[in-house]
Description:
This is Glycosyltransferase. The protein is α/β, with parallel strands linked by helices.
Amino acid sequence: VAQAIKPHVAVLSSPGMGHIIPLLELAKRLVIHHHFHVSFLVITTNEVSAAQDQLLRSETLPLGIDVVRLSPVDVSAITTDDMPVGTRLCVIVEESLSKFLKTVLIELGKPIALVIDFFCTKAFDIGRELSIPTYSFCTTSIAFLAFSLYLPTLDREVDCEFVDLPGTINIPGCSPLQIQDLVDQVKNRKSDAYKRLLFFASRLPLSAGIFLNSWEDIEPITLKAVIENPFFKGIPTPPVHPIGPVIKEEEQPTDDLGIECLAWLDKQPPESVLFVALGSGGTLSYEQLTELAWGLELSQQRFILVVRKPTNGSNSAAFFTVGSDNVNHLKAYLPEGFLDRTAERGLVVASWAPQMAVLKHPSTGGFLSHCGWNSALESITCGVPMIAWPLYAEQKMNATMLAEEVGVATKPIINVEAETCIVGREEIERVVRVLMEGEEGKVMRRRAKDLKESAAKALAIGGSSYDSLACVAKEWNANPSMI
Length: 483
Ligand code: UDP
């Protein structure tokens, strides 16, 4: 009965663990710290992910969060098998929201606010129709948000392809953006992918406010820029609320694999293990995985390696199918004899590891990461420095920022002259040693530890991120109909 009188907020995530994880975490904070009742809306896809199912199981969630699954949509007539993952995702989101969101929000009794991610902008129209103020949650860095906010202006002012621009892209008030770090979608302005990104970006000002999954100490310059700068000429940027890091809390794995990872870590010396994992969708080619395995072996460092079926196609091939790999397949993906030769020093796991628990473990001393924003925040919050191995989306931007501005990552040197962009085993061996035993690694580890403390401060009661969210919660509570 007490539940019913709590103010009710809806949080809507597009598919993919990189979005569901932080939005669910925001939902938890709204329930636990600010006493809301939250409906967590999930867009259903046909693909099954064991990890996602586990995450959304009601018995693992605090009382006060209801997971509401939108009915599945049949997109077979409007998608093709060779469609890029991102495009397919957008089609599913668009269809689901057009068909079901309005009805669901009405059935839920019209929540006082709706929080969505970048891909759910269809919800702005429905929110307006139902008079529900709709907020965006930025699952990426503030730097990528600034780029998105500026993109419509850039689109109007630049005639050529962005990749043909000399030098860098200079977003007002922000650090220059390297052309080679641009997201793939903007490399061809005639492509549908570009048009879609531009559309999503141009809808951002419709947000009643934008939650940032970051805090001042990580991105001071860019935060100042988004607070002060109207990126759209004549259209002000909505109020921004830095509430990060919004990342998974402690997770105690209950599955055999997770338990095995932690038990293995318990037996290793402090800060001696490199954790190698490429997010929820990252995959490597056979050739790259072979080089990576050899690099790890040559470095003679301890490691946990999360392995997925290699693919020579998309480097985000596992996005929808993660968790379906079988531990028996691993041997076939890795160099012959690798598992035996490294048995003393390494642990290889299939598909998915309890990342947050691994990063938090005192034996973990480094993280070879694809630099998805959640992974980057998790690593920093655990005081663990990184080897930046960007694969897709805005990860190249993140990698450069983490290495050059934040100072918590090192990047392998890629021979751009070479025919393929494969990073060879010697280079991998080198960066692993730099991070795990070099002076540079020590400096990065110290910086990561400082930021770990800064994150804890920001999140504690009275800290900047805690207060930022509390402020919005207060507004919602004070006068919901006037927001
Ligand atoms: N993750 C995990 N175990 C894995 C791989 C990923 O728990 O083996 C989690 C990770 O902790 C993070 C999320 O999945 O919270 C991945 O999000 P990120 O933004 O780093 O990358 P994306 O998957 O969106 O590319």
